[in-house]
Design goal:
It is built from 4 helices and 9 strands, in the order E-H-E-E-H-E-E-H-E-E-H-E-E. With 160 residues, the chain is α+β, with helices and mostly antiparallel strands. It has 2 domains: 76 residues, ACT domain (Alpha-Beta Plaits, 2-Layer Sandwich); 68 residues, Alpha-Beta Plaits (2-Layer Sandwich).
Length: 160
């Protein structure tokens, strides 16, 4: 199955998210990741939708069906190498005092930020592509991860 990332420019109106998600659910497509936020123009929002399809025809059909919706202004596939995609994670790691330095060193290697320190845990923030985040989590696997939150992918096409 091929993973595809769509950037969808929509009217910033009530119900638009429901209509987009409804299109996917009615056709039995699963959304792997969905992020939505207002653009530089408050009349519009940008959705970044990650979906997997068994073949290119299914993914092309998804793109065409989204483009037909009234609130949709533009649908763009964010292709690897032609776009920038990022994700944010917050991870709370249980650490003993003697482990703090080791976990902090791992965070430094990935240019992550320690955003909260408690007696028995550290909360770390990291932004990057999916591979970077997964590599970071793999290095933390020897520690107890108490909580993990991922924003989902967001992205834009390169250039003008």
């Amino acid at each position: 199955m091929r993973k595809t990332v769509f950037s969808v420019l929509v009217d910033n109106t009530a119900g638009v998210l429901d209509r987009i998600v409804g299109l996917f659910s009615r056709r039995g497509y699963n959304i792997d990741s969905l992020t939505v936020g207002e653009t530089e123009d408050p009349k519009f929002s940008r959705m970044t939708i990650v979906v997997r399809g068994e073949d290119d025809d299914i993914l092309e059909q998804i793109e065409k069906q989204m483009a037909k919706l009234v609130d949709v202004r533009d649908v763009t596939e964010l292709k690897s190498g032609e776009s920038v995609c990022r994700e944010l994670i917050l991870v709370k790691v249980a650490v003993k005092p003697e482990e703090r330095h080791q976990v902090s060193a791992i965070a430094d290697i990935f240019r992550a930020k320690i955003v909260d320190v408690a007696v028995d845990s550290l909360m770390i923030e990291l932004t990057g592509d999916e591979g970077k985040l997964n590599a970071f989590l793999a290095l933390l696997s020897e520690y107890e991860i108490k909580s993990l939150a991922r924003t989902g992918i967001t992205g834009l096409s390169r250039g003008l």
